[in-house]
UniProtKB/TrEMBL annotation:
One of its GO terms (cellular component) is membrane. It is a multi-pass membrane protein. This is TLC domain-containing protein. It comes from Pseudictyota dubia. Transmembrane segments: none annotated.
Length: 139
């Protein structure tokens, strides 16, 4: 996945350029996927799945706009798009039809670790960083 490659590039070679490239690429992907889903709503099996994807993408777009608007926070994007590793493992399993237990275990380990542990910790960290950067709570 291009986003996974850009995520690791932004993490390994941190610079305003690599962070901006990832932020803009992720924003482009997110808005393109929103447009695709709006144009083809039946690509999802039901309305609940369709709505959750649109809500998730809208929230992601708002977060990405922050990194684009405040380049000093551009390094935050790779910390969020690191979740794409989990999505990548899921897609590899789906596309390849692989029953490889390593892919299945990798998917579940990254899902549990990233979504149930890493993301809540990231939220607390980002909140602290926003306060430290001078953004007001509730403002």
């Amino acid at each position: 996945s291009v986003l996974v490659a850009l995520t690791f590039t932004s993490a390994a070679l941190p610079s305003p350029a690599t962070h901006a490239l990832l932020s803009y690429a992720a924003l482009l992907y997110t808005t393109a996927d929103i447009a695709y889903h709006v144009a083809h709503p039946r690509c999802q099996p039901n309305v609940v799945r369709f709505a959750t994807i649109l809500l998730h993408h809208a929230a992601a777009a708002v977060l990405l706009l922050h990194s684009v608007t405040y380049p000093a926070h551009g390094g935050w994007t790779w910390r969020c798009t690191l979740l794409e590793v989990n999505t990548f493992l899921l897609e590899v399993r789906r596309v390849s039809g692989s029953k490889n237990p390593a892919l299945r275990i990798g998917f579940y380990v990254t899902w549990i670790g990233m979504r149930l542990v890493y993301c809540p910790c990231l939220l607390v960290t980002f909140h602290r960083e926003m306060i430290r950067a001078g953004f007001e709570e509730g403002g």
